[in-house]
Write a structure and sequence with these properties.
It is built from 5 helices and 12 strands.
Length: 217
């Protein structure tokens, strides 16, 4: 159960950070080639980024959709903070190989190590340069969209689609679908680049009364 939970977190909130790595290794023609080049040029200039997001999780078997909102902060090479607001308020910190998920309403936190042996085939591993995207995915697309389909089993993921933006940050949204037709949609808003984000945004600072559960894959 915990393995599934952590994989879902990694895949749903981190994929936008992979684009710079993913698309530096692929060569196509026409719209796909142009879109890849656009992303490459943008990522070469990015030191950090921040913005807000809306995330919709749809569970087909339950015929249920939940909507979440919040803010995100990312600094290269591998530091990220995602802050969810509302009834499901939680903070997700990733600092190199350490992951901490703080569920504010429950006053509990889950801390673990990003283990490449366990998660090495998930998209987040590509952020650190592991894996060969040409071998891992079949890539297609048209207009302002790209579609990635895993060639080999990638957890329960069947496809990852990306919608491009005309803004300075070239990704508007992305959608992850699994074998049960469950869907995670994330739309990025008000993205700002290279604002020299402070170290404090990425530090694991928790109240003293929070119980920390250690997670071992």
């Amino acid at each position: 159960m915990k393995n599934s939970f952590f994989r879902t977190v990694f895949i749903s909130v981190l994929f936008l950070c992979l684009a710079g790595t993913i698309f530096t290794q692929v060569s196509f023609s026409s719209d796909i080639d142009n879109n890849i080049e656009k992303i490459q040029k943008a990522y070469k200039k990015i030191r950090d980024m921040k913005g807000s997001f809306t995330q919709i999780n749809t569970i087909r078997d339950l015929n249920k959709s939940d909507t979440y909102k919040g803010q995100f902060f990312i600094r290269q090479p591998f530091r990220m903070t995602w802050m969810y607001t509302g009834k499901a308020a939680q903070d997700i910190y990733i600092n190199n190989e350490t992951v901490l998920i703080y569920k504010r309403g429950e006053k509990q936190a889950y801390r673990g190590k990003f283990d490449r042996a366990t998660f090495g085939q998930t998209p987040v591993a590509l952020l650190s340069g592991f894996g060969d995207i040409k071998q891992e995915f079949t890539i297609s697309g048209s207009g302002n969209s790209l579609l990635l389909k895993p060639k080999n089993p990638l957890g329960t993921i069947t496809s990852i689609s990306i919608t491009l933006s005309d803004d300075d940050f070239p990704i508007k949204s992305f959608v992850i679908q699994d074998g049960r037709s469950n869907v995670i949609e994330i739309e990025l808003k008000e993205v700002k680049l290279n604002t020299d984000l402070k170290d404090s945004l990425f530090e694991f600072t928790l109240p003293k009364n929070v119980k920390i559960h250690e997670y071992n894959p």
